[in-house]
Specification:
3-stranded antiparallel sheet; 266 residues; 5-stranded antiparallel sheet
């Protein structure tokens, strides 16, 4: 079982975040000042606004610093590499294999108490296209997404606009149920959102099951915003971080056990 255990340990050691920017073109309409592509690497933000309006990242207070999010305008793209493959894995919670976090958020209907409106109203819902590749050369279209499915939440034990970090971080690699609808968020306060998130840090989940080679995995992701040809529009999308959903530890143990059984039967 040593080989399988070694592989499992290797997967656990690999970073779930994007580790390298392969290419970045801000396009024609990127938000001025938000053009540092390195901000898309590593773990998403949990605390924002340092030096100005410091506050926890919450569904009402998404990251907004120039050193926290990168903007992609019309005709632009951001390409990143991972060292952990994005795979279609039946053990992934809700079948979600990748999570993208941006700076969408709920408008607080009872500011500053943090209450989602009924119906919910949101800001920062920017549409972008996701493509995935195993080799950085051949790409597959994974479809359009927005940043607004479940706005980021940095801490389990923080309020909507706390000016100090919480003590218990959320898990940015834990997906939310993609079958949730806006009505499921309607009228919830921060405590209700925390219960709905169930430890997750939010984000938009992506299922790669329909893509060719998804079982083997992808190491590159490209996010782009199309030029709509309208001189009166200014489309852009902001990205904070991208998380590869890891195989749950229990599944890794099962994999090791199955490998040992297979070898004993030879």
């Amino acid at each position: 079982m040593g080989i399988v255990c070694g592989m499992s340990a290797g997967l656990q050691a690999q970073s779930p975040w994007a580790v390298e920017v392969i290419g970045y073109d801000p396009g024609t309409t990127a938000t001025p000042g938000f053009v540092d592509s390195q901000t898309a690497l590593g773990e998403p933000e949990r605390f924002t606004g340092e030096g100005a309006f410091p506050g926890v990242v919450s569904p009402f207070n998404p990251p907004f610093g120039m050193d926290e999010i990168v903007s992609i305008g019309e005709g632009g793209h951001l390409t990143v590499r991972f060292d952990r493959p994005i795979t279609n894995d039946g053990s992934h919670l809700f079948g979600v294999d990748l999570i993208i976090l941006g700076n969408g958020g709920f408008i607080d209907s009872d500011f500053p108490n943090g209450v989602v409106g009924d119906p919910p109203t949101m800001f920062g819902l920017d549409e972008a296209r996701l493509e995935l590749s195993a080799d950085g050369v051949n790409w597959q279209d994974a479809g359009l997404f927005t940043e607004g499915f479940a706005p980021a939440m940095g801490y389990i034990d923080a309020g909507a606009f706390d000016s100090e970090p919480g003590d218990v971080p959320t898990d940015f690699t834990r997906p939310l149920d993609p079958s949730l609808t806006p009505e499921d968020f309607a009228g919830l306060d921060i405590d209700g959102l925390r219960a709905l998130y169930d430890g997750s840090g939010g984000g938009t989940g992506i299922d790669v099951a329909s893509l060719h080679g998804a079982d083997d995995g992808f190491l590159f992701a490209r996010i782009s915003v199309a030029d709509d040809g309208d001189l009166n529009s200014s489309l852009n999308a902001e990205i904070d971080g991208i998380a590869v959903v890891p195989t749950p530890p229990g599944a890794l143990v099962l994999l090791g056990g199955l490998g040992a059984i297979a070898r004993r039967r030879r």
